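Recap for those who missed Tuesday's class. We walked through two folding examples back to back. For each one, the amino acid string is listed first and its predicted structure tokens come directly after. Nothing is annotated here on purpose, so try labeling regions yourself before you check the end of the notes.
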Amino acid sequence: MKFYGKAQEVAEQVIQRFKTGDIGQPLADIFIKNSPGSPSAYWSHRNRLIMHLIGMTHDARGFKQWRDVGRKVKKGTHAFHILAPVMAKVEIEDEQGSKVTIQRLVGFKSVAVHAIYDTEIFDEDLWSRSSTPDDGVRKFLEELPLRQVAEEWGIELTAYSGKQQAARGWYARNGVIGLGVKNLSTWTHELIHAAEDKLGTLPKNIRGLEKQQAEVVAELGGAVLLIMLGHEVEADTAGAWKYITSWAGDDDDKAISMCLDVLGRVCEAIDLVMKTADSLGDAVQEAA
């Protein structure tokens, strides 16, 4: 197998750190705090849970709501459903015995909504005005290393308030990466997911062992990629080890074994990222 530059060497060095425990402390999360511009920010806890677990998204809206902000639902995509209260007017007697009419909850109805990754922009200006993050978040997104690679692959970058859901970031196959923290390690983790998707090595229905392996590839690959780019601290190998061991049931030996098992996939994903960057004319300097 052909590896790009120092990918295999650096990956083996990182795994050696895992073995010796020479990894320091994980970096603290710096959560992104966007203004709650999405209607889903005001949904009930139940519906926000449905959005995260079933819709696998941080932002979902109805068909017309998306069009109102310059996005349209892609053909062939499918909605998921949240629950909306059904209210009815009922007549009751008040304390004085007088009849009054009130609104009472009588049930729920399902409402179809679409995740952001099932939509596409048709009005750039309208979407920009509806979704512009604050200056600090925008600057962070604009300065992400290898951002041009994601753009070349047709991937849209978005930010969300990180405490709205447990995930620090996510990658959607329809071409969106969402970041809830200002951490480069989260960014490269999701970029490696995208690279695996392009390579065809990211399973279509990830569950069980396949899910474990995909997450280990992304976490190890993201750390290696940052080290190769000279971002040693931001690679957060301590955080990577903590994350990987969580997928190994907190079994250190199993975590090491999982890293070694997916080493080839890690290097192939890095290879694709780096070659894409080179093809765009980006000078990618490896750490000495």
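Example two. Treat it independently of the first, because the proteins are unrelated.
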Amino acid sequence: MIRVNLFTGMPVQGQGLDVLRRALLIAAGVLSGALVVGLTVLLIRTLVSAPPRTPAAAQTAPAPAAPPPPSRTPYRSLGLGPRIAYEISFTDRVLEALTTRLPAGMTPSLVTIDSFEVLRLAGRSPVKEQVTSLLGSLRGDDLKLSPRPQTVVTATADGAYEYTAEVRICFAPRGGADAVDSVLARLPAPTQSEPEARQRIERLAADANVAVRKGLRYVTTQKAGSYRRYVYRMDAAGTLSDFARMVRTLRAGHVPCAFGSVRITAGRSGRMEIGADVYVSARE
């Protein structure tokens, strides 16, 4: 008898469920792996693109902005008190700026300081680079070198270089309002200022090797508000550096004087002729 197994090729009861279960488990594993890989890639990208963390100690407030530059008020726009204080320091600051910028061995044949606003120079040098260096240094926040025709450099027939220059000056205040108040507070009374200041100026000029001819000569007295100004004429001889030292010593010694105009011209034996109007201030 031939038996035909009708169940051949067909799953036994319960076997189909096991196959399905295994298939589902495999699929779940594949999906879980893919999810882990995706999350890992996303995390790496986030870490790479994120900016570095700043240590807690370094997470401070931003640095304060730099203070604004000091206000440079033109001389003619100053009030009476600040103007007097500005006048007293002006010539010292001009000569300091000039003498520190002059190349070694180069002395102008003419220096004028006018109206507490303008410095003018004239001279010559056998080396063009010296002239270029000097004129280039007369530029800055306080100093404005004027263009042609006020500033000119000319080659001479003997190969030297002659120059004329004009510099407009507007100094920033040093020390602000407190410095102005300090200068004004030291102004003497009118009865004290005239003889004492004149004698100190003449004595300090001699100490600086500046020879004042016939002493300071009285010109006039000016009055404005509670201030008085005694005007003298000074004619002297000395080097530019001697005169600069004299003016610096006067300011350091709190002598209440200013130089309304200065003219320094080449003289003999390296010395220069110095003419100036000297203002001595007082306060009632």
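Answers for example two:
The chain has one domain: 75-283.
Strands lie at 110-114, 118-125, 143-145, 152-155, 161-169, 211-212, 217-224, 227-238, 257-266, 272-283.
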